[in-house]
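Exercise: predict the fold of this chain.
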Amino acid sequence: MKRRDSRTKLLAVAGAAVVMWACEAPEQEAGDDGMPVVRVGVRDGEDVLRCRDAFVPLARALEATLAAEGQRVQVAVECYARFRELVAALAEQRIELARLDAASYLELGGSGSGGRLLAVERPRPGGSGQGMIVVGPSAPEVTALAGLRGHSFAFGDAHAAMGRYLAQAALLDAGVDGRALGTYRYLHRADKVAAAVRLGEVDAGVVDEQAYQRANADGSLRVLARLHDAPRGWVARVGLPDATRDRLGAAVVAISAPAALDALDAMALEPVASADPGSYARIRAAVVAAAGFGDAPRGAVRTAAR
């Protein structure tokens, strides 16, 4: 099957007169009627086309808020299949804003490319910040994480807190590292992990709440441990003028349209000052711990970051 392009672009246009927008991108893009374009990157590992449609209300909400402040722009939402691609786009200044999970934000800072955290999401109960390690019908004898020794395991995105780092930290706490597993692999997407576990292609894996609910209609997945991610953050690229960055941050926090919040699976967006600093410290600790997860035994499928 031909590999899909991992990025698609959606231009959501708000027509009207143009007010200068100083994005100072290396190659500033102009949209319809010569209006400047604000490029917003989001990650949707399951369905880029769904992502394109789902984020139309978000683009329009940002445009409306900026227009009310006298800034007439087009918002282009760019969807990426993996967090690493999204981080690279922000670091290379191909987008102005990115919606990142905590591990990706920490990776961005560690790369030296920087970025300014503008806002954080307040997730809905049981929403995108929740996940679990599940076991399927191929391993009925496993009732705890420690019982996964010698079994096969699937992770999701190799650069995501939920898809990798939180799960590996939890396994290490239970005394199970990469060498103790029979095999492990990275399938990049939570829905693929859920399907692989349900079908017995692997014994266990880490999934988010949404993938679990969709895949477990028959009750074949059992939860061994629950995981809690930090809220998603909205990060501006380096090089934006202070005034532009402040206007973008204010526009993001002002998003309140129900359809836009539904796309984010969030209750609201809040200023950085409202964020719990301990949540990011917890993800940082998981990233550090996962460095000791180790290699899988000979013959394992390892498609981790290279």
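Check your answer against the key: The first helix runs from residue 48 to 54.
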